From TrEMBL:
One of its GO terms (biological process) is coenzyme A biosynthetic process. SUPFAM superfamilies: CoaB-like. Keywords: Ligase. InterPro entries: CoaB-like_sf (IPR035929). This is Phosphopantothenate-cysteine ligase-like protein. The lineage of its organism: Eukaryota, Fungi, Dikarya, Ascomycota, Pezizomycotina. The keyword Metal-binding does not apply. PANTHER family: CORNICHON-RELATED. Gene3D superfamilies: CoaB-like. GO terms for molecular function: ligase activity.
């Protein structure tokens, strides 16, 4: 009998196999090549200037139920976190690549779109048939306009849209890989609300799913199969039911950290509705994916407070001063080690204050340290 020879072939990497399978099975968005070209030019321009660049993802991803999509499932997100964060990143000296859900909020225009007032309410007729800002709004509008123009004219803002979960993942992978020349100066700030479940293309109807069986005889006559996405025996007639059977979306954060962007700093968000599990879930995500920061937020209080969970340090709550009183604070203080910012360092009672104005400087501080550490380590090697 022959001795068995130890195989030299390494065991297959399951994350890479899942990635390979997902990206082959789910077609890329039609504009991927165009977006990739724009992203490459933008990234290379800022890499050459030695400027830090952040990829901000924003808005919800859709899960189409049909290939020619009439119906889809959506994830909650207006895009406020992403669009607001993008403005503060620009203010902090970053170039911003803003990958967002089509028609969700955008940096700068967010102040006047999707608001309860129509944008026309901010305008009035001026002299000689012109249109000007209303007196009460002019100062703020001028400030927003100047910042917007500066971002555009200095080529510091690139805006790219996605719609579905597979569009998002294709775009994210390509852009993250293009960010390689930035090394540690690349920052990924993943605020998009990413679907955890989807319909794989081989089980997706080509056409609009029918709500009655009116077309069944036509289909039978042409021997075309009647689409059916479930295999149970419904008690309610088929014509009245829609049972949607979703597969889990592979978790690509690991591939992002290890393969797509191994030198960049990666910040993910964790959204929960139950305060008692938020920090635990954020810490779990950090341990599992080994990235650099998870920002936890609750659906109900996300505009007032977030918690930073990062390796080797205590959880840090960041909170607007206005949220320093009331039920939400007491509830959270009782359960979790809480280190709020000192309210004396913040302007009091400013209605214009946004929590992203506190989040971004704190992220930048971590990113600066990350770059320093990376450079020191490189010098030693
Ligand atoms: O836009 P707003 O209305 O202001 O709302 C902002 C927000 C609440 C949506 C935002 O602050 C937020 O929390 N975004 C993340 C929501 C989310 O997708 O959480 P999650 O628990 O499903 O995913 C956590 C992280 O895992 C995400 O950063 C995502 O990039 C990543 N992920 C998720 C699924 C998946 N298949 N692969 C992933 O890598």
């Amino acid at each position: 009998m022959m001795d068995s020879i130890p195989s030299e072939t390494p065991p297959p990497n399951l994350d890479e196999l899942a990635e390979d399978h997902y990206f082959k099975a789910n077609p890329p968005p039609k504009d991927l090549a165009k977006h990739t070209k724009l992203a490459r030019e933008f990234i290379d321009f800022h890499a050459a200037a030695g400027r830090p660049l952040v990829l901000v993802t924003s808005g919800g991803t859709t899960v189409p139920l049909e290939k020619q999509t009439v119906r889809f499932i959506d994830n909650f997100s207006a895009g406020t976190r992403g669009a607001t964060s993008a403005e503060y990143f620009l203010e902090a000296g970053y170039a911003v690549l803003f990958l967002h859900r089509q028609f969700s909020l955008l940096p700068f225009s967010r102040h006047y779109s999707h608001s309860t007032d129509c944008f026309l309410d901010f305008l009035k007729e001026g002299p000689n048939g012109s249109v000007v800002a209303r007196d009460d709004d002019a100062a703020k509008m001028l400030d927003v306009l100047r910042k917007y123009r500066h971002a555009r004219e200095s080529n510091r803002l690139l805006v790219l849209p996605f719609v579905s979960i597979s569009d998002y993942l294709h775009e994210l992978r390509s852009i993250a890989q293009l960010m390689t020349p930035l090394g540690p100066r690349g920052l990924l700030y993943l605020a998009a609300a990413v679907s955890d479940f989807f319909v794989p293309p081989d089980r997706m109807s080509e056409h609009k799913i029918q709500s009655t069986n009116a077309v069944d005889p036509i289909k039978a006559a042409t021997t075309e199969e009647v689409f059916d996405n479930f295999d149970s025996s419904p008690a309610v007639p088929r014509s009245k039911r829609l049972v949607v059977d979703l597969d889990p979306v592979p978790k690509f954060l690991k591939n992002l950290v290890e393969g797509w962007s191994p030198e960049g700093m990666i910040v993910s968000f964790k959204l929960e509705t139950d305060p008692s599990i938020l920090v635990h879930k954020a810490r779990y995500s950090l341990d599992r994916y080994q990235h650099h920061l998870v920002i936890g937020n609750l659906l109900s209080t996300r505009k007032w407070e977030v918690v930073f969970v990062s390796p080797g340090v205590a959880d840090r709550w960041i909170r607007l001063p206005a949220a320093g009183k009331g039920e939400a604070d007491e509830r959270i203080d009782g359960v979790i080690k809480d280190e709020p910012l000192d309210p004396r360092t913040l302007p009091e009672g400013d209605p214009e204050m946004e929590i992203e104005g506190l989040i971004i400087p704190a992220v930048k501080e971590m990113h600066d340290k990350y770059i320093e550490k990376f450079v020191r380590r490189q010098k030693k090697e």
